[in-house]
């Protein structure tokens, strides 16, 4: 739309919603009206001033002379050398923890909600669901957190745990997980982290490979142990987290573990309080964590992360988030066994923030485990900071669009106009979309969306997988806050690149964090070189203080992807393909193992195609597959059940089961057409658009072993499970 048309639309919208605005202003008194009018006058002036000094041309990263393999190496432009520690003396996680707890001893640290009631409801098809009524957050101070960690550490030693032996934590995210890990660090005990969703074989492999002697778990995981106890010869002790929401009958599970010393977490703390042990503090080069990734192929690999790696990432991220401190509230819900969440909590803790624990099943008022009519975690906690993964943001976007579509009429038109106006403001095309108009849109259109996550979020970071640019911008506008992308791997302790607070661009992962360098190395075979125009491209290689020691008990794989250069700098070869923008920001554009060459010589990127097709409202999850002996690709998709069933009702299609609908030619055709449309919107070539597809009725979850805990595809497992479906698509 031209600017003139924008003026007309602006006046039209103001007239139409003025009466609603007056009601809003009355609620906030006459001063609210005066303030809003003043804001309407001065905001365009401020915005014009900001535009005159736009940050988009600022160099966020600059070239640097570094050793190792030839390539283009960049560092963060704000620092002349790599930073290693957040402050003097904080060279390990244990030292950082102790110093922060002393500084913020009376501030809130960790919080969990109190259980008011629990009930099990039965749906119409006989399935049972647990519903929780949760109360306010109950907080402990930093001082108490330190005391509990010290008591737990002493209790471990009193139980007989030897300092040179490993402890494993096998549990969902909760405050006790963090406390247990900090207790281990104070005795220089390496923690083995294992995803709660890991299957039995992978769990046994991880525990046996690291010869774990003490296992810490929650009650849900405790119930898995009797069936595999005979396969765990190194385990001597089990410590379990108490759970208010566990059936009393489940308490008997402890009786089946008599051959191990089994105590509750509270009992170990009590044991430590009465038998204090002197700490054995680690050095920065000691291994803090062996983190088992939920890899996409074979058994998981254990990455050895040192104390120095963790504090380097924390030091770097602290420089990126403005005004981080005790006034911030962070909502913790992703798996602590994932490096993204562990690094985030160390960052928040280092700044004295309050950390409130949640879960994907209790986060919002409409989450699966929240009793109807009661509040979800976000509504009670009202966080200011949170991290997430693209799959969750995609679901939020789809949920919002679904609600807008259901309301229709004026509500739908207002949303669409408001979204477009905010988009114009971000692009600098319309100053009127700032000031009074922004106040109106925010309060009448976007406020209900923001209330989903508590209404106080000031920064959100997405990581774990590439975030599609349209989703990033959609969430950015609807929540009214920066939605940054972070890039890192377990092998880089989550530290590689991070979008900066003042960067409004989408689709990029920002400049290198100041704890590391990022280098692009030409990949000639794939057609990506550092001499490419308009931007240099190549494999992403990360070097610096966040690079981990390698894989536990796997020198062959370690030597394959880790290299030490002539200057002693350690580099990790990620396998991802990126490009540097003119301002030094990195964009991830491909992955080497996801590149497939078709029969006629065209290269396609499966990940790029999946990200584009995932924007279809019909798609819950999707995997693209390409057989190199053919000249086209195909797709397996899990459809959004609600959306597909609504389409079927409107289209008059009769079916008895959802599986039957997924096999319907008309349903497959409808979803396929939506994929074709999404592909065109994303600018994909014809050979990148799946020619055929199949719909699969059952969702892909970490429990099924088809996606990782970060919800990334396990491509080999999917190919194996659905080999018959893929065969049919090509024959």
From TrEMBL:
It is an enzyme of class 6 (ligase). The chain crosses the membrane at residues 28-50. SUPFAM superfamilies: Acetyl-CoA synthetase-like. The keyword Membrane applies. PROSITE patterns: AMP_BINDING (PS00455). Keywords: Membrane, Transmembrane, Transmembrane helix. Its EC number is 6.2.1.12. It catalyses: (E)-4-coumarate + ATP + H(+) = (E)-4-coumaroyl-AMP + diphosphate; (E)-4-coumaroyl-AMP + CoA = (E)-4-coumaroyl-CoA + AMP + H(+); (E)-4-coumarate + ATP + CoA = (E)-4-coumaroyl-CoA + AMP + diphosphate. Signal peptide: none annotated. One of its GO terms (cellular component) is membrane. It comes from the Eukaryota. The keyword Transferase does not apply. Residues 131-552 form the AMP-dependent synthetase/ligase domain. GO terms for molecular function: 4-coumarate-CoA ligase activity; long-chain fatty acid-CoA ligase activity; trans-cinnamate-CoA ligase activity. Gene3D superfamilies: N-terminal domain of ligase-like. One of its GO terms (biological process) is phenylpropanoid metabolic process. This is 4-coumarate--CoA ligase.
């Amino acid at each position: 739309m031209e600017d003139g048309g924008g003026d007309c639309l602006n006046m039209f919208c103001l007239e139409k919603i003025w009466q609603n605005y007056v009601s809003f202003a009355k609620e906030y008194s006459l001063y609210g009206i005066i303030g809003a009018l003043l804001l309407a006058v001065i905001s365009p002036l401020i915005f014009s001033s900001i535009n005159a000094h736009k940050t988009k041309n600022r160099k966020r990263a600059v070239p640097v002379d570094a050793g190792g393999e030839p390539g283009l190496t960049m560092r963060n432009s704000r620092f002349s050398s790599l930073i290693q520690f957040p402050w003097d003396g904080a060279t390990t996680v244990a030292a950082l923890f102790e110093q922060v707890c002393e500084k913020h001893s009376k501030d809130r640290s960790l919080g969990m909600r109190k259980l008011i009631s629990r009930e099990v409801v039965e749906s119409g098809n006989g399935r049972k669901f647990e519903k929780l009524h949760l109360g306010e957050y109950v907080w402990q101070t930093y001082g108490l957190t330190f005391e509990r960690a010290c008591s737990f550490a002493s209790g471990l030693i009193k139980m007989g745990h030897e300092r040179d032996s490993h402890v494993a934590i096998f549990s969902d995210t909760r405050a006790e997980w963090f406390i247990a890990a900090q207790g281990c660090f104070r005795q220089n005990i390496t923690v083995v982290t294992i995803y709660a969703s890991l299957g039995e074989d992978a769990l046994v492999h991880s525990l046996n490979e690291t010869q774990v002697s003490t296992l810490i778990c929650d009650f849900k995981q405790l119930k898995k142990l009797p069936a595999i106890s005979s396969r765990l010869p190194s385990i001597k002790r089990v410590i379990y987290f108490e759970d208010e929401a566990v059936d009393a009958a489940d308490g008997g599970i402890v009786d089946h573990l008599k051959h191990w010393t089994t105590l509750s977490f509270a009992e170990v703390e009590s044991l430590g309080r009465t038998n204090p042990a002197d700490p054995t503090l680690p050095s920065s080069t000691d291994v803090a964590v062996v983190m088992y990734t939920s890899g996409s192929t074979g058994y998981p690999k254990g990455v050895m992360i040192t104390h120095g790696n963790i504090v380097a990432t924390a030091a770097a991220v602290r420089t990126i988030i403005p005004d981080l401190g005790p006034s911030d509230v962070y909502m913790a819900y992703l798996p602590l066994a994932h490096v993204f969440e562990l690094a985030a909590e160390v960052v928040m803790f280092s700044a004295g923030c309050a950390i409130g624990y949640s879960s994907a099943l209790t986060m919002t008022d409409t989450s699966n485990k929240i009793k109807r009519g009661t509040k979800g975690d976000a509504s009670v906690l009202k966080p200011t900071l949170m991290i997430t993964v693209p799959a969750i943001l995609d679901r939020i976007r789809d949920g919002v669009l679904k609600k807008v579509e259901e309301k229709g009429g004026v509500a739908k038109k207002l949303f669409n106009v408001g979204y477009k106006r905010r988009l114009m403001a971000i692009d600098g095309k319309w100053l009127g979309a700032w000031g009074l108009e922004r106040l109106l849109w925010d309060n009448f259109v976007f406020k209900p969306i923001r209330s989903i996550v508590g209404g106080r979020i000031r920064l959100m970071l997405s990581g774990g997988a590439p975030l599609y640019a349209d989703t990033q911008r959609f969430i950015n506008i609807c929540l009214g806050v920066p939605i940054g992308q972070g890039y890192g791997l377990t092998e880089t302790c989550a530290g590689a690149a991070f979008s900066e607070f003042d960067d409004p661009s989408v689709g990029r992962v920002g400049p290198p964090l100041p704890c590391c360098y990022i280098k692009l190395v030409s990949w000639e075979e794939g057609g990506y070189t550092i001499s490419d125009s308009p931007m240099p491209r190549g494999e992403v290689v990360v070097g610096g203080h966040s690079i981990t020691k390698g894989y536990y008990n796997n020198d062959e794989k370690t030597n394959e992807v880790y290299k030490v250069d002539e200057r002693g700098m350690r580099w990790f070869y990620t396998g991802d393909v990126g490009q540097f923008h003119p301002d030094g920001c990195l964009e991830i554009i491909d992955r080497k193992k996801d590149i497939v060459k078709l029969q006629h010589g065209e290269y396609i990127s499966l990940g790029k195609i999946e990200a584009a097709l995932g924007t279809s409202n019909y798609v819950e999850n999707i995997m693209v597959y390409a057989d190199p002996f053919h000249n086209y690709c195909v797709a397996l998709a899990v459809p959004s059940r609600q959306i597909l069933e609504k389409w079927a009702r409107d289209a008059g299609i009769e079916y008895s089961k959802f599986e039957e609908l997924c096999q319907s030619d008309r349903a497959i055709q409808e979803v396929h057409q939506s994929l074709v449309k999404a592909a065109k919107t994303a600018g994909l070539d014809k050979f990148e658009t799946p020619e055929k597809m199949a719909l699969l009725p059952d969702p892909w979850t970490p429990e099924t072993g088809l996606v990782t805990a970060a919800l990334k595809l396990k491509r080999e497992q999917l190919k194996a499970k659905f080999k018959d479906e893929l065969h049919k698509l090509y024959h």
